[in-house]
Design a protein that fits this description.
The chain is an all-alpha fold and 89 residues long. Helix content is 85%, strand content 0%. Keywords: Membrane, Plasmid, Transmembrane, Transmembrane helix.
Length: 89
């Protein structure tokens, strides 16, 4: 008894459809994994940049504080040794 062509063709078409769907899902999963990895990498770099910026900011604030303190010392020294006649002692 010969095989009926319509059920065989229907089964082959269904198998091809399932294969395409599985392939598409695998590609989508890979794309999703790549996006997640990129997000993790970006978040890590953002954290690293934020920490580096914080360190630089604290150094700049400390340097500004040191300059302010030096200004106060200099002003105090100049006020102590200032001659009202316009010269220095």
């Amino acid at each position: 008894m010969p095989a009926r062509p319509i059920p065989v063709l229907t089964a082959l078409a269904a198998l091809a459809g399932v294969a395409c769907t599985v392939r598409h899902l695998i590609l989508l999963r890979r794309a999703l994994d790549a996006e997640r990895a990129a997000r993790r990498l970006t978040a890590g770099l953002h954290q690293q940049d934020l920490e580096a910026f914080t360190v630089r900011l604290h150094r700049a604030v400390a340097a500004q504080h040191a300059l302010s303190q030096a200004d106060l010392v200099l002003d105090s020294a100049l006020a102590t040794h200032h001659d009202p006649e316009g010269g220095s002692l």
